[in-house]
Design a protein that fits this description.
The chain is mostly helical. The protein has 10 helices and 3 strands; from the N terminus they run H-H-H-H-H-H-E-H-H-E-H-H-E. The longest helix has 74 residues.
Length: 289
């Protein structure tokens, strides 16, 4: 009887012990599962934040590249073919339509009255070859030229402007030939080439005008073929001799026909009033000039 009582007591104790232990194990498992879930949520949130940062950096990089490309395109000189196309479009709008369309050069290019012509030009010219930024720059340049020409005509200064443009074109053409000859010459020393490279600019060239422009056609005896040279009083003889040596090299390479076609130059004009450039080296300028 006593043994049965003890066995029942022992079984009851073990059962109670198991029942008391079971909830603790379940709680530990539930706690571990909850902790794993929190870690996963945090990892997912961190990954999402990193993905957002990467996307934001990629968008900013794309914008920076696009801005750089647009800046490069806007700074690039407009091709002559594009300017010719813009000229053709403007001429077509003005001459061939029943109701002509043209810019009002007394207003700005962005004015409402001129926006339609500008939009038509953009539609006709923008392409893979000519980006919008390039077309916009070329259109503005063309409009500015028309505006300036209109102002010169209205003030009766168009003839003077054309003469000035011709003189400037002659000077730039002569300068480019001098530069090419300097680079190609085999008789110049490296020192002479470096010295010439520093002064082969328009600012160091004498002023030239045709006899017709100066009103001396009759006394010169050769209409439209003589250039009056106005020497620079501040230019040293050494620089003048170096430039004249370059010009002799140029003449030697020309054909007899090309030499005949060149205008003769007369150095009897009044000295030029053009001042020396601020960056003029000491060896090229007369002291106190």
């Amino acid at each position: 009887m006593g043994e049965d009582t003890e066995r029942r007591a022992s079984s009851s104790f073990l059962s109670s012990s198991r029942s008391s232990l079971q909830p603790a194990d379940s709680r530990r498992q539930e706690g571990a599962a909850g902790t794993g879930t929190d870690v996963n949520v945090q990892l997912l949130a961190a990954i999402k934040a990193l993905q957002d940062q990467v996307a934001d950096l990629q968008a900013k990089s794309t914008q920076a590249v696009a801005a750089t490309q647009q800046c490069a395109v806007s700074q690039k000189k407009a091709p002559k073919e594009l300017l010719a196309t813009i000229h053709s479009v403007v001429k077509h709008l003005k001459d061939t339509l029943e109701k002509p369309m043209q810019w009002d050069t007394s207003l700005g290019i962005s004015s409402p009255e001129n926006m339609l012509v500008t939009a038509v030009i953009a539609t006709a010219c923008v392409s893979d070859r000519y980006p919008a930024a390039m077309v916009q720059k070329a259109t503005k340049k063309y409009f500015t030229t028309l505006k300036r020409r209109s102002r010169l005509i209205s003030t009766n200064k168009i003839s003077d402007a054309r003469q000035k443009q011709r003189r400037l074109q002659r000077k730039h053409h002569k300068l480019q030939i001098r530069k090419a000859t300097c680079l190609a010459s085999t008789t110049l020393t490296p020192e002479q080439r470096d010295l010439l490279g520093a002064v082969l600019h328009v600012e160091y060239m004498s002023t030239e005008e045709s006899a017709e422009e100066s009103g001396e056609d009759e006394c010169m005896g050769e209409r439209h073929k003589v250039l009056i040279v106005h020497t620079l009083p501040w230019r040293r003889a050494r620089l003048t001799e170096m430039l004249q040596s370059l010009d002799r090299k140029i003449r030697r390479k020309r054909s007899s026909r090309a030499v005949e076609m060149c205008r003769k130059r007369c150095h009897g004009g009044e000295p030029s009033t053009k001042k020396p450039p601020p960056s003029c080296p000491a060896w090229a300028k007369v002291p106190d000039c």
